[in-house]
């Protein structure tokens, strides 16, 4: 992955990301229904999962709860789902790996259309993946760790050709994320931290050394504890949401935020989340579900922004830069571009309604019938 990123560059990563996105999305829509058919078809799978005694409530709206589950109560599961939804909304809006893509878009209409299409694909992908992944339990309920369920299915349930493509899709998804994150790490270190500029060869060398170091560190983590990578991703998401989220939105919409307030907002949110997660992991501190580290971090970030901005004044350069952000670029009001964006928005809205209807008849009806 690391060597691949060395030579791809930002535009190359976008091209490969797009290709890999289509690869794992298409194969998921092929493999998911096949797995469901292998356990008796969609309706039969939903019925069996609804009454699955080994893992009760595995496809309930709240998921598995209880002493041995991730969440003890339905309320805790719901609150965490809402919190996680807000966290990832903020991450998608302000994270570097997203913002860097927006900056390379042809215009803002392209960004808006992509923002409509991508979540729709993810929504449909989740419907297929979550139910088919749960259905694997009907074939082998003791897969450990659970992160390997689809990999096990690729070897033992799917036809050889489909399993090969499925593994390729999983690798593509990993490679897509890896290339994006590694390129951003290299750029951030060379441009933002050590401020290398001018000598392009030196900048490239620093970026590659940084990416190699991060790649080796990631390899070590995955070797000793494979599932850790997923939790590192969740941890990173909460860090960005709590530290960058309030600052990013305030920098665009607030006239009072200053550079000092923004800096301490990022630092405060980062420290609060990192400290909270450390206390939870190693200190045995049990935070209430409505006051998890991401929520504490976001609140502390806002507090730091308010205090830091109150103690300083907005400079003329900061004021002018913010005002420049609100100037609509020429051509963004084009009737053709607006029409295309609105047409897509209406299409996506219609697709959303169809998805709700489909989930109702494919999940809610057979699930509730099985419980009666």
Automatic annotation (TrEMBL):
Compartments reported by the entry: Cell membrane
Any Gene Ontology CC annotation: plasma membrane
Chief localization: membrane
One of the GO BP terms on file: sodium ion transport
Xref: InterPro entries: Na/Glc_symporter_sf, Na/solute_symporter, Na/solute_symporter_CS, Sodium:Solute_Symporter
Signal sequence, renumbered to the chain: none
Single Gene Ontology MF annotation: symporter activity
Family to which this protein belongs: Belongs to the sodium:solute symporter (SSF) (TC 2.A.21) family.
Record flagged with keyword Transmembrane helix: yes
Protein name: Sodium:solute symporter family protein
UniProt KW keywords: Cell membrane, Ion transport, Membrane, Sodium, Sodium transport, Symport, Transmembrane, Transmembrane helix, Transport
Superkingdom as given in the UniProt entry: Bacteria
Transmembrane segments: 12-35, 77-95, 116-139, 159-185, 231-250, 257-275, 295-314, 344-363
Membrane topology annotation: Multi-pass membrane protein
Ranges in coiled-coil conformation: none
Reaction catalysis annotation: L-proline(in) + Na(+)(in) = L-proline(out) + Na(+)(out)
